[in-house]
Write a structure and sequence with these properties.
With 469 residues, the protein is α/β, with parallel strands linked by helices. Among the domains are: 108 residues, OB fold (Dihydrolipoamide Acetyltransferase, E2P); 131 residues, Rossmann fold; 62 residues, no CATH class. The protein is built from ten helices and 13 strands.
């Protein structure tokens, strides 16, 4: 039988290693250099981290070489039995591992033959060193903010005397949200709360809080409040971040924080206008401040006005009672005096009445006797005047004037002509006599300059407008 390809290759390269042999050599070399019974410490920067399966998987890079294109990456694994207690310890200390953090890990080197990977199996994490670095970072942040004048900037803003327009950064539906809002709702004052929801823990919390604060900066609030219920230090880590601290410090209105602290105050608390241990305390203090203003400016003066009004009313009632007494006494006196005068006059009238009636009856009799002759005299004189007027009217009667030889000259429309003005040859005229009329035509008009009677004075003839057609 012809030899196979494998046998030929072995004959040609008797010193070649199989993959299993190669991995055995690698594993042996690693065990000799990094024996599993001798754990070692490794320092690196977290590039990525995941613990969705209960185990923790971390990619570490050198802090100084992370920008290199081919920077070496160490695959770190922390099994569930180790990661569970370690994670609880980190949360208790307020630490949440995230990319960019430099950590110091203790463990052993492991070669995973199935993928030809060199891994680092973690058994311990130096929490003390990590806390020291976080504390140093916090101190450096506070020094930076102080140098920029941001530690006191928000605290120096003036808070309105009655901060009723309140902007709230919180996670709606949480206990901290209800604790704060409940204090305002039960205060009895008309707070207008503008809520901007925000995540208050987790990786996205800092950016979410910053966006909420920037939104409220343009809503015309008197005060902005950031609240969160209790939690571990890790849950409250967002409030130690630089973006949140800067956003709080640079707000154009005062910012109060009501964060359920379990330890030291956060950087956001330090740069805020005022800070409170819990959301309940924050809401209570806000309600107390408004209630104090109400008591000082409204309720107190109103009570003074009420007391003074009562004093004024009592004094007015006293004066009114006295005035009523005086008026009653005076009215009774007047009634008695006028009653006496009336009685006296009544007595005099009763005595004089018969005499006055007798005198009046005599006067009426005398006047009635003189009334008849006076009436007859007036009637006679009026008759004489009437006869005179009749004679005067008869003298000016048109018919009487025509009978005396006078005539009336009329135009063709029956109007009396008193002057030659307006007449022309050929103008028809009518002449009225006592016994009839004559129609004629003007042949010639001759105007005389001798003064004659005017239009308003027709002379001894009949008066204008008294004739009949």
């Amino acid at each position: 039988m012809a030899p196979g390809l494998d046998e030929v290759l072995v004959d040609l390269h008797p010193d070649a290693l199989s993959i299993a042999d190669l991995y055995d050599e690698v594993a042996g070399a690693l065990n000799r250099v990094f024996p599993r019974n001798r754990p070692l410490w490794v320092r690196g920067e977290v590039q990525s981290i995941s613990d969705r399966t209960g185990h923790c998987y971390i990619d570490l890079v050198d802090p100084d070489g992370r920008r290199e294109r081919q920077a070496p990456v160490l695959k770190v694994k922390c099994w569930k039995m180790t990661w569970g207690p370690l994670k609880r310890t980190l949360r208790r200390e307020g630490i949440e591992l995230a990319p960019g953090m430099v950590v110091l890990l203790r463990g052993v080197v492991d070669f995973y033959r199935a993928r030809a990977e060199v891994n680092f199996i973690v058994s311990e994490l130096d929490v003390t060193a990590l806390l020291g670095r976080l504390a140093a970072q916090r101190a450096a942040l506070l020094r930076t903010l102080a140098a920029e004048g941001l530690l006191e900037r928000n605290r120096n803003l003036a808070l309105p005397a009655v901060p009723l327009r309140v902007g709230l950064v919180a996670s709606p539906g949480t206990e901290g949200y209800h604790d704060f809002v409940g204090q305002l709702e039960t205060s009895g004052f008309g707070f207008a709360i503008s809520v901007v929801p925000a995540a208050v823990q987790g990786k996205g919390a800092p950016n979410s809080i910053v966006r909420a604060l920037r939104t409220l900066a343009d809503r015309g609030c008197d005060l902005v409040v950031v609240v969160r219920g209790g939690g571990s230090k890790a849950d409250l880590a967002a409030f130690d971040s630089e973006p949140v601290a800067r956003a709080v410090a640079t707000m154009p209105v005062p910012v109060w924080t009501g964060i359920g602290h379990t330890g030291d105050e956060s950087v956001a608390d330090i740069v805020a206008h005022r800070t409170f241990v819990t959301p309940t305390d924050c809401g209570h203090e806000l309600a107390v401040q408004v209630a104090g203003w109400w008591a000082e400016r409204v309720a107190g003066p109103a009570a003074v006005v009420r007391r003074r009004a009562e004093d004024v009313l009592v004094a007015a009632e006293s004066r009114d009672t006295q005035a009523r007494d005086r008026l009653t006494s005076g009215a009774r006196h007047q009634l008695r005096w006028h009653g006496q005068r009336l009685a006296a006059r009544t007595g005099g009238l009763v005595e004089r009445a018969p005499r006055l009636v007798t005198e009046a009856r005599a006067s009426v009799g005398a006047r009635s006797g003189a009334l008849g002759p006076l009436a007859h005299g007036h009637v006679a004189r009026a008759g004489d005047r009437l006869v005179s007027w009749r004679r005067l009217v008869a003298a000016y009667d048109v018919e009487r004037q025509l009978e005396r030889g006078y005539t009336l000259t009329l135009d063709d429309r029956g109007r009396v002509l008193r002057t030659v003005a307006g007449l022309a040859p050929g103008t028809p005229v009518v002449t009225r006599f006592a016994d009839g009329t004559a129609r004629s035509t003007v042949d010639q008009v001759t105007e005389t300059r001798t003064p004659g009677p005017g239009p308003a004075d027709p002379g001894p003839g009949p008066r204008p407008g008294t004739e009949e057609d």
